[in-house]
Amino acid sequence: MVVLVVATASDPASIGPAAAFLAMPGWSPGPPIPEGMESFINGHVRLLKHEHSIIAEDDLDLRWQAATGEDVSEVIFLSKHTAVSNRPALTVHPIGVPHLREDEKPPQGGRPGWAALPNPRIGPWLRLMQTIAVDQGLVPEFEITLEATHHGPITNKPTMFVEIGSTEEYWGRQDAAQAIALVLWKGLGFEEENTVGSWEGNGEKVLLGIGGGHYVPRHMDIIIKDGVWVGHLLSGYSLPMEVPSQGNGKSSSEVGGMWKHSIKVSYDATKAAFPGGEVIAHLDQKSFKGWQKNAVMSYLQELNIRIGKPNDFI
What we know:
The protein is of the alpha/beta class and 314 residues long. It has eight helices and 13 strands. It folds into two domains: 187 residues, AF0625-like (Aminopeptidase); 99 residues, Rossmann fold (3-Layer(aba) Sandwich), CATH 3.40.50. Helix 1 packs across helix 5. It is globular.
C-alpha cells in the first residue's frame, strides 16, 4: 500500500510545498500515468504532479492503481486556501459535498451528495502543523486551523487537503511551503520511522462535527487537544434545513432539506475510515436555532449516533 501526495504546478501553494518535499532525501523518478503526469517515489510515498485544477482530477487513486498495480491507502492533496479575511493560514480539512442534491452542480468538484472517506491523519496533523509552525516562527502571523468539509475531487480512499492561505502574497511563501513539507516528512514517518496519525482501530472515539462556521471553532477547541481523532466536519452551509410548515421541529421528519442526507453519508464515511472506532457527534449548539437543534438531535437518536460533550473526546 502506498500514500499518494498530489500537487499541481498551476497552484503556487501546491507546487511550493511539493518542491520542498522533493528536496528532502530519498526521492527517485516514478512511472508516469497515461495522462502524462510526473511521479516521484520515496519509500511508501508517491508524489504525483500534474498541471490541472487540483479539484478537477477525479479518481486519481484508482488511476494510479490502474497504471502501476500499486494499491493506494490514502490521498493527501496540497493546495491554496482563499478567505475573505485574507489572513495568512495553514489549514487541513476533509472533502465532500454531501449537502448537494443530485440536480445541483458542485461549484468546486466532487459528486452531489457525496462525502469522501476522511483521512484519520486530519486531527493529529493539525496538532503537528501547529507545533512545526511555532518552531518555524510562522505563529502568530499564520493561523493554524481546520476547515469544514467542502469541495472535490472525487476519491475512493481516505483523503485530506493541506493548504496555504489566504492570498497570492502567502501562497508562494517559501517558509510556509517548508513548514508543509516538514509536516509531510514527519507525518509520513521519514524522520523517525513512526508515522503521525495512523489509525490502529483500537476502539478510540472519533469526532463528527455538526454545525458552526467554516472554521469550526467549537470543534477546533476539542480537536487541538492531544489524542482526539476527527472525521467529517459539517458547517451550517452543509446542513440545509427547510423551516417546518407546522409543528415545533422536534421530530426530524418535520424538517425538510438535504441536512439528513449530509449527516448520514458523512457519518457512514467517517465510520468506514475509522474501523473499530466509536464515531460520536459533537454539536456546535449555539449555531442552531431551537427547532434546528431539536431536529438534528432527534435524527442522531434515530441513527443511534451518540452525542458527545467536549470531555467525552479526551
